[in-house]
Amino acid sequence: xxxxxxxxxxxxxxxxxxxxxxxxxxxxxxxxxxxxxxxxxxxxxxxxxxxxxxxxxxxxxxxxxxxxxxxxxxxxxxxxxxxxxxxxxxxxxxxxxxxxxxxxxxxxxxxxxxxxxxxxxxxxxxxxxxxxxxxxxxxxxxxxxxxxxxxxxxxxxxxxxxxxxxxxxxxxxxxxxxxxxxxxxxxxxxxxxxxxxxxxxxxxxxxxxxxxxxxxxxxxxxxxxxxxxxxxxxxxxxxxxxxxxxxxxxxxxxxxxxxxxxxxxxxxxxxxxxxxxxxxxxxxxxxxxxxxx
Length: 293
Fold this sequence. Notes:
By secondary structure, the chain is mainly α. 70% of the residues lie in helices and 10% in strands. The protein has a three-stranded mixed sheet, with helices on one face. α1 runs parallel beside α5 and α2 runs antiparallel to α3. The longest helix is centred in the N-terminal third of the chain and has 35 residues. The radius of gyration is 25 Å and the shape is elongated.
């Protein structure tokens, strides 16, 4: 458990990094976008401004997750980070719809003046910055197995692509295609909504005790190979924040005593932890009668 708390604490560093990066980038994009009349860069800046709120929600969720178990939460508060990721998806989706609405209105009556190239270079610079943040956060998310940090990393990557799209749209507008800039802003809105949906889908899957069946079958095969395990009677798993919980019922030789049965469960626990880094495995033993040939 202590290792899980340490991993969550590491995740907080990534959330703080995202907050600081988004504060800087949103201010830069909104200012440059306003003075250069770039709809795409302004839409991107608006996206980043709400990313600040989403990142704060993720940070709060991570800190709540570190609270130890109490009488009302015997399994701890780990799911708070998944709830934070879900809240972040709602915020992103709302922003995506707003960007789409404003961009469509501007697309119908685009400005004839092309945005200044300073807007394009600003977008490219911001894409590079947020992509570096993405690299840091995706590595952190994989190392800590954090859904909240995975959501933050996906948001970072989406923002990098959005900024690259804004760069392309602004450059294209320099070649006499003024509607390309608001068109890019529309694409920005779709990307934001797609990323929000992906985070929403993953978060709700975890909160409803969903678990990847292929991974579960792999764990099942691993347990079945342990000496003394005659049959896997039942196996279930669920995600609890940055933890995975496995419940398995195994059949063992009915002639085994309690000590021998306990030794089998210890082998299973150690193997699952060493191979899959899953520390919570609840094992129920039932007597198994081998069919006589």
